[in-house]
Amino acid sequence: MGIAGSRRVFATALCGLVLGGLAVVVAPSAYASCAAPPVPSPHRFTGTVIAVEDDGSLATVRADDGRVVTVLGGPGAPERNMSSSIDRSYTVGGHYEFHPSNNKDPYQDNICTATHLVEEPRRAPVEPSDDLVPAALSTDQSAGQTSSALLVGAVAALVVMAGGAVWLVRVKRMRRPVSHM
After folding, report:
1. Would you state the pLDDT for residue 143?
2. At what angle do helices 3-26 and 143-175 cross, to 10 degrees?
3. Closest CA to 63 of 71, 73, 55
4. CA pair distance 107, 71, nearest whole angstrom
5. Are 174 and 143 in contact (CB under 8 A)?
6. Which three-class secondary structure state does DSSP give residue 180?
7. pLDDT by residue for the chain (181 residues), tens digit each?
8. Residue 87 in contact with residue 73, Cβ under 8 Å?
């Protein structure tokens, strides 16, 4: 196989790797680890998140019926220091319809349940100021995972392309005829 043939094979393999990597990276992270679409829970309730811990995955909720309950948006108790790809995080002040997988406090929840934000938190009016501090961003759901995955995928694609370029240069130098003077 000549240089042109090896370039074609390399280009085809590189395109396949890049397209495959993009397909994995661009896939919605919320459904990446969930086996089925979310199903409404028989234990559903609505409430407002009044406090969060453990990066937002442990919520203290004032249910609309007046109870104050705990909702775990991850695999277990926060003292276990565990996290998974299906962790849900909550925003203080957000009003949610919770669809937990169990019927008692603490309620178990994750991104594979039908829990959803009903109303965004109300923000206090912003007074004019010379400070250039951006407003707080919502941490609801799993917003950061997709952007992190995109960054990792882009870096991986660049590494593969750089490796391919180095390989092509080496192949070209090996095939170059030696001139004798």
Report:
1. 44
2. 170
3. 71
4. 5
5. no
6. coil
7. 566 666 676 677 666 666 666 555 555 444 457 888 888 999 999 999 999 988 888 999 999 999 999 999 876 555 556 677 788 999 999 999 999 999 999 999 999 999 999 998 877 666 766 665 555 555 555 444 555 666 777 788 888 888 888 887 787 777 766 666 6
8. yes
Question: Which pair of structure tokens corresponds to residue 85?
Answer: 């790809």
Helices (H), the chain: 3-26, 143-175
Q: Give, as one character, the DSSP assignment of residue 44.
A: -
Print burial letters for 141-175: b (CB count within 10 Å at least 16), e (below 16).
Answer: bbeebbeebeeebeeebeeeeeebeeebeeeeeee
Token pair, residue 77, equals 């108790």
